[in-house]
What does this fold into?
Amino acid sequence: MSTGEQRGWPLYEVFVRGKRGLNHVHVGSLHAADDRMALTHARDLYTRRNEGVSIWVVRSEHITASTRDEKDPFFDPSADKVYRHPTFYDIPDDVPHI
Amino acid sequence: MTAGQAKPAEPAVADGLQERFDATIARDQRIEPRDWMPEGYRATLIRQIAQHAHSEIIGMQPEGEWITRAPSLRRKAILFAKVQDEAGHGLYLYSAAETLGADRADLTERLIEGRQKYSSIFNYPTLSFADVGVIGWFVDGAAICNQVPLCRSSYGPYARAMVRICKEESFHQRQGYELLMTMMRGTDAQREMVQDAVNRWWWPSLMMFGPPDDNSPNSARSMAWKIKRHSNDELRRRFVDMTVPQAEKLGVTLPDPELRWNEERGHHDFGTPDWDELTRVIQGDGPCNARRVERRRTAHEEGAWVREAALAHAAKQAARTARGAAA
Ligand SMILES: [Fe+2]
Ligand SMILES: [Fe+2]
It folds into this structure.
């Protein structure tokens, strides 16, 4: 991503599963020479106190992201479909369990 | 954008972006890495986060010097874990700085070339093992006062790094205070060591919060951007109020004849730190500045072959894997 990376170890993004039943969550980044080292560094840096049961690392340059602009039409398809939400539908109060 | 506008596109876009940025700050929402932000905001954050990261890294040295001389295996293991945490804090923060486009190798170079600063407090020497306890109590305590409000800093990655750091600081402060309680239950000589360490670290700890508000030119802007949430003097006052009762319980005297409870204000009155001393230490003329930076430079240079060898090994492994796949 940045030009300085050629000077050293590449940048990795780190994702940790806090405990069973939870998704992996992005916790930060680190530099490592290769994937294996990225995993052991991630363990030492982000899980010193049992913060995780599973770690993913991925080279930052391999992540594809949506554009940064909030006004981007990218998210428009979800903005105008109110009928996707349960509150869109009027149901009488006396209908149970719905 | 409205079609057919006569104005050139560039400033029109910039106008809208600035408004959106201001609105995000006003709503107390977080700015995230890929958002548009004013260059001043970005530069201020990079400077502050880098200085903070450098402080954690340099901060390993004063206490690290006592790891091999810790009086018991228990104290050695605790000190080791604490110093390792400080390394971690530095790395969380460098990681946050990189989301703003800073380059980590460049930040390290700036530190060892003296072009970027770190906290003045780490330029004082650790003369006895009691210093390890007093650093945990005062320096990590002051860090907690500084850092808890930063968990709500307007820049997302910085605030999240702070949450992580604050969780760990509590252990740092408590192990220091417990160490001092143990020494205070010991011999007269041990109690004297504790009082001596308190006398030497008290004023430098108050200086950690930076110059007084009327002499802190960038503070107002950082507060408007919600990078910073409280002024230097406000945080210093909190630290004093928090520490005085802890000192009483411990049985040590804080070396300030002007220190007393002010019933009317509901806070302690206290003396004025020697601001000339702070200026000297910040400008490089503290007792240990040269030694701290030199140590960091040596570690960096002596580690160069390891970084290169790891890269060469990674390249060799990758080539081997590629050949295996082709065969
Ligand atoms: Fe720290
Ligand atoms: Fe700490």
Q: What stands out?
A: Residues B 86, 140, 143, 169, 172 surround fe (ii) ion (ligand 2) (CB under 6 Å). Chain B has a mean pLDDT of 93. Chain B touches chain A at residues 16, 20, 34-36, 84-85, 88, 91-92, 95-96, 98-99, 101, 103-106, 157, 160-161, 164, 168, 307, 310-311, 313-314, 317-318 (CB under 8 Å).
